[in-house]
Design goal:
- The chain has 2 domains: 7-53 and 200-300, no CATH class; 60-193, no CATH class.
- The chain is 53% helix and 9% strand.
- It contains 9 helices and 8 strands.
- Helix 3 packs parallel to helix 5 (172-193).
- The protein is elongated.
- Bound molecules: zinc ion.
């Protein structure tokens, strides 16, 4: 069980508000990220891994941020479905905005539908990274991670079915354009709504229990986090972000780099999730965790 920490138990290197620091050893610019309170220290990983399943996977700040993002996602998705209905009403001639052609109105509603679907999905994915759901409930886990795709299907498939199979009397040109636009939006929307880097509550808790407050590094567009700024996969990245593993996962970097895992003796499964820690982390990380242990024990003594 990861202990809830009081402020005085925080690691000595507790990060300040986002600021830029340049490491002299390399030309990389490293931006500190501190989105959440650091979790348990990287001490006694073996003992903690067993208890990790019950560890809180998200801090209160992450949870409330995730809740806001889920609400925003739902708002955008509702607006998207409303646009689908409007597109359908334009298609069957029930509404006509008159200032432009029916075709343009139709395309405009489908494009806005698409934009709202995708924006909603980004909020939803971010919420799932900040406050992941448990893997134990397989149905909920699947639904939560695929919600963006499901909504995208709801936002275009009913329209497509109506245009292609229900309405036999529509203008063929309009029918053709409407179905092509909706089909392209559906495919693109699924690709952009799907969470390519899902994370479970257990996966996040395991990563936090293993790495604790150890600094991890990631790039803006990467999907993994690293333990070493000199990792070969970071050779071409001049700008890095540094923070706890919680911050990294919150930023959508849900997996540990395979090369770093190997170099640091951390076992990961085929999906990149940490399964166990084979050996201690770097001497520096060990020292840090010992310092934290001492700090934790000190008040009690
Ligand atoms: Zn790496």
């Amino acid at each position: 069980m990861a202990e809830k920490k009081t402020p005085e138990q925080d690691a000595p290197e507790k990060k300040a508000a986002p600021k830029k620091t340049t490491v002299s050893k390399t030309p990389k610019t490293i931006t500190k990220v501190d989105s959440a309170a650091p979790s348990s220290p990287a001490a006694k990983p073996a003992a903690k891994s067993a208890a990790a399943k019950n560890a809180p996977a998200a801090s209160e700040a992450d949870k409330s941020s995730a809740k806001t993002k889920r609400i925003l996602a739902i708002v955008f998705w509702v607006l998207a479905i409303a646009c689908e209905v409007l597109a359908l009403l334009v298609f069957i001639g029930k509404i006509d905005l008159r200032f432009t052609s029916q075709m343009v109105q139709l395309i405009a509603f489908l494009v806005i539908d698409f934009i709202f679907v995708v924006i909603g999905a980004q909020f939803w994915k971010r919420a799932n990274h900040l406050d992941p759901v448990s893997e134990q409930n397989k149905v909920k886990f699947w639904l939560w991670n695929n919600m963006g795709v499901i909504v995208c299907c709801f936002a275009f498939i009913p329209f497509l079915i109506y245009v292609l199979f229900v309405d036999k009397e529509a203008d063929p040109k309009m029918k053709k354009v409407a179905s092509i636009v909706a089909a392209v939006a559906l495919v693109l929307g699924i690709g952009l709504s799907y969470d390519w880097n899902p994370v479970s509550q257990e996966g996040k808790a395991q990563a936090e229990a293993t790495l604790g407050d150890t600094s991890v590094y990631w790039t803006q567009f990467g999907s993994v986090y690293h333990l070493d700024t000199e990792c070969q996969h970071l050779n071409r990245s001049s700008e890095l972000f540094v923070g706890t593993v919680s911050s990294a996962i919150g930023a959508g970097k849900t997996r540990l780099c395979k090369t770093c895992a190997k170099n640091f003796g951390i076992e990961i499964d085929e999906n990149g999730a940490i399964t166990s820690i084979a050996a201690a982390l770097t001497p520096a990380a060990e020292e840090a965790s010992e310092a934290v242990e001492e700090a934790v024990e000190a008040p009690a003594a």
